[in-house]
Structures are given as C-alpha cells and as structure tokens.
Specification:
Strand content: 5-15%
Structural class: alpha+beta
Keywords: Membrane, Transmembrane, Transmembrane helix
Oligomer: single chain
Largest sheet: 8 strands, antiparallel
Number of domains: 2
Helix content: 40-55%
Shape: elongated
Number of helices: 19
Radius of gyration: 28 Å
Number of strands: 8
C-alpha cells in the first residue's frame, strides 16, 4: 500500500488589505513592530541619541540592531524553516508573559537601578523583550524561537555586558573598539555557522576587515573620537560579511524548499492591537529622575597635571595614585588620592579636639560622560549601604552631594561629599571622605574598581530589594565639617587656577 503523500503546507495568508505577497506581509508586520517600538521607547532612544552626540561610551549601541539584522539574515538563509505548526493559544500566553516582563523591567527595575542607569540601560533590555513579545504575537512562537541565538546576542551586547567587556579588556578607546567588534564577531558566527566551512572561512576573512580598520585608527588617528573607534571597524565588518553572504551561494535542502516560514495565520490584527496597547502603556511610564543628567558644570577651577590644592586650614600628609581609573574612565584617566589633616583640632568635629583626617579622591578624564556611566561607588569594593543624598552649595556655582556609607563588616561609617566639574572636554570628580573612627590610622576604602562587587550588589537588589544597599537610618555627623571643607576646597582650586593662568 502506498502511503499518502503529504501536501506541502499552504503559504500563510497575507494581512488583509495587503497584496498577497508573503515577503511583503512580513515586512509590514516588522514595520508595525518597529513603529510601535520607537513610539513606546522614544525617551530611551532620545537618551541614546544624546549620549552619542556627546561622544559617550554608550554610543556604540547603534551597531546592535545592525549586527542583529546580519545574524538573523544569515541564520534564515542557512537554517531551514521548521514545519508550520500553529498553536495560537500558546503564542498568546507566551507573548503576554514576555510583554508583561518588558513592562515590569521598564517600569519597576529601571527606577530601582536609577543610580546605575547609564551603566545598565535596563530600559533597552525592556525594549528587546518588547520586540520579542510583539514578534511572538505577529509571527508565532516557533518563528521567534528559531532566532534564539540572535536574541541572546542582542541581550548580551547591551551596555551592561559591553561595559564588563571594556573593563576586562583594560579600558580606553581601543578596548571600546575591540568590545564592539566582539558583537559583530558573534553576529558573524551566528550568521555563518559551521555547516559550510568555505563560507565560514570567507566570512571570517571579511570580518577581519574590522580589526584591520581598528589597527589603522590606532596607528594613524589615535586621538580620534571614541565613537569612531566603535563604529567604523564594526560597520566595515558588517558590510563585508553581508557582501560575502550575498555572493556565496548556499545549497537549499529539498525539504526546506517546500516549506514556508511559520507565520502566524490568524488574529494578526488582534495581536497588533494588543502590541499597540502595551506600547502606549510603556510610553506613559516616565523614566526615573536622573536619567536625563544635566551637563557637568563648567568651572575655571579645573587644573590638569597637578594635584588639587588643599583648602585653608588643612595640609596634605600623604598622596597616591591608582591605575584603575583607566578601566572605567578612559585610557588617559587618572585617579589621585590625597590624605589631609586639619592644622588644628575643632571641638565641634571631635569631642577631644583632635585634628580630623579626610581623604580626597580625584578622578580626571577626557571622557566626561564616563562619570555619568560609572557612579562613584563602582570604584570601591566594600560591603556598604548608602544613605539618601543631600545637596549642598559649595560656592562658585558648584553643588555637591552629601551621603553616608555604612560598612557592616568593618562596623564603620564613612561620610562622603561628591561633586564634579568640567572644562574644554575634560572633567573631574572629587570624593571627599571622613570616617566615624577619628584615630589617625582609621581605614578608608581603597579604590579598586571592582565591577564584580558592584554587580553582586545589583543582583542583591534584584533578589532581596534595595534595602540591602541603602541605609534608611543614617545620620550625617560630619556634614558641617565636610561642607566647610568642600567650600574651602573649591575656593582653593579657583585660586590655584587663577595663579596658574598668570
């Protein structure tokens, strides 16, 4: 008996009102997803544009969609489509779960991590999840799962993963360019695979154009902007690899020739309305305060190439420098520490009238936006809980922030005064610290740029809540001393800069 021959599945019907071309139907669906995504995440995209305009380290993010298109296009060409099995109920359930998670990440987690906003960019994670959920509604779960490697690459390429790569590579423009090339390398690997070694070898050669371009920039134009370090090599790789994939023919399996992509066949308009509704909900959620950071105050007090001058009534007893700043704030960044002691004791600051001790950490960088990306606590690896911040006027248009940090292991509390300023493409951050132990040998946290410690704190917040890194019972015992010190410190830098200009 001859077994019945299964007829090839019929092509998915196009969206109503669209010419019966499946390719056009797919393009219309993707255009709809793209339009709703842009409208829903307009604030996030605007912040990304602002970061790019000021040559911020997150300017690389525009290569992520280009790399994703490269990876998805190559994967679609080399991987046969699965047989179409429509389970609309499963599609809807999974899509609603993913879209709900996207809204929660955007509306709940992003505000919780507001201090680390530019370092993590969780709103971009929410954007990717939104696109995944919308894709499931308009194309079906099987069609979206087919591109799992592309989604994974996109999530890992977002700023939180990129910054870890840059730090581990040593920091600086070259490290930023190499980390960006790692994204296109992953996209190339996904697009090419290993099923055709000849094409894989050709694509590898094409991708190598990017590293060569980076070497040329390092050798001939080392002072060019960080954005060009990130964009030119990666775009060169993407263009060359895309050309190879278009030129190199690939054998199409006979089984694949009779299959069509598993597009969702029903409820497309209903799914579109649901995606639009979620997009409107996301657009109505404001990003947390502080995500649109004001520009650094411009000050004549910035002096590069020498240590800050001590304020009147204080003298420097110890100085030191740390290389860790280069990993976070650029290859030319410096981090200097000064230990200062008051000339005379003050009974209001110490009941025994002992001269108080403070340390001043000064970060100087030619990447001003890096100060916004990496908050001060990234420099230190201590088990600390931070208090709320209080703004104080330090004079000359400079505003500082007072806070306390409690270390539960050392049973110490540090009082901190932080402020920043910039001029002519340079920026400085000052962290003035005192400790509640007034002995001369009292410990201060050492700068070590332990990103791992910061990430562990972030995961602790995720699983246990923000109370694990925030101190709600703080007392600002040294607020008066630090405020007076800060005003004198700012005044001293103004005088030092004025003397240097004569």
């Amino acid at each position: 008996m001859t077994p019945p021959v299964e007829a090839p599945p019929a092509e998915s019907p196009p969206i109503a009102g669209v010419v019966g071309d499946p390719t056009l139907s797919r393009l219309v669906r993707w255009a709809l997803i793209a339009a709703i995504t842009v409208l829903a995440f307009a604030d996030s995209l605007r912040i990304s544009l602002d970061n790019t305009r000021v040559n911020g380290i997150n300017g690389y993010t525009w290569i992520i969609p280009a790399s994703a298109v490269l990876a998805a296009g190559g994967l679609a060409r080399r991987k046969a489509a699965a047989a179409r099995i429509d389970d609309r109920q499963t599609d809807v359930i999974v899509a609603v779960m993913v879209l709900t998670f996207a809204v929660l990440v955007y509306g709940v987690l992003t505000p919780r991590y507001a201090a680390f906003y530019l370092m993590l960019r969780l709103d971009l994670v929410a954007m990717v999840l939104f696109v995944v959920g919308a894709g499931i509604l308009l194309f079906g779960l099987r069609a979206v799962v087919r591109f799992n490697p592309v989604w994974a690459m996109t999530i890992l390429a977002l700023p939180w993963g990129y910054h870890i790569a840059v730090i581990e590579l040593g920091g600086g423009k070259t490290a930023g360019g190499v980390a960006a090339l790692m994204i296109t390398a992953a996209a190339t690997a996904i697009a090419v695979g290993t099923d055709d070694l000849r094409v894989a070898a050709a694509a590898a050669v094409a991708w190598s154009v990017g590293p060569l371009a980076l070497l040329v920039i390092v050798a001939l134009r080392p002072d060019t902007s960080l954005l060009l370090y990130q964009q030119i090599p990666t775009l060169a790789s993407i263009v060359c690899v895309s050309a190879v994939l278009l030129v190199q023919p690939r054998p199409v399996p006979a089984a694949a020739a009779t299959r069509t992509d598993p597009l969702t066949t029903t409820d497309v308009w209903w799914g579109s309305l649901l995606v639009a509704a979620v997009g409107i909900a996301v657009a109505a959620i404001p990003l947390p305060p502080g995500t649109r950071l004001p520009p650094l105050p411009q000050s004549d007090g910035i002096v590069v190439g020498q240590l800050p001058a001590p304020p009147a009534g204080w003298h420097v007893v110890e100085t030191g420098s740390y290389d860790v700043a280069r990993r976070l704030y650029g290859g030319n960044a410096t981090l200097d520490r000064q230990k200062l002691v008051a000339d005379v004791g003050n009974p209001e600051w110490d009941k025994f009238g002992r001269p108080r001790t403070v340390v001043v950490d000064t970060v100087t960088t030619d990447w001003p936006m890096s100060l916004r990306v990496f908050p001060p606590q990234v420099l230190f690896a201590v088990n600390e809980r931070l208090s709320e911040r209080r703004r104080v006027d330090l004079g000359h248009g400079v505003t500082g922030e007072l806070l306390t940090a409690v270390d539960d292991d050392l049973l110490l509390t540090w009082s901190l005064l932080e402020f920043e300023w910039g001029k002519d493409g340079l920026a400085q951050r000052f962290i003035v610290a005192s400790v509640d132990n007034h002995e001369p040998d009292a410990p201060f946290p050492e700068p070590n740029g332990a990103a791992g410690k910061t990430l562990s704190q972030i995961f602790a917040i995720f699983f246990r809540g923000s109370s694990v890194v925030y101190d709600e019972t703080s007392s600002f015992k040294d607020a008066d001393m630090l405020t007076e010190f800060g005003r004198g410190f700012v005044e001293a830098q103004m005088h030092s800069a004025a003397a240097g200009s004569r």
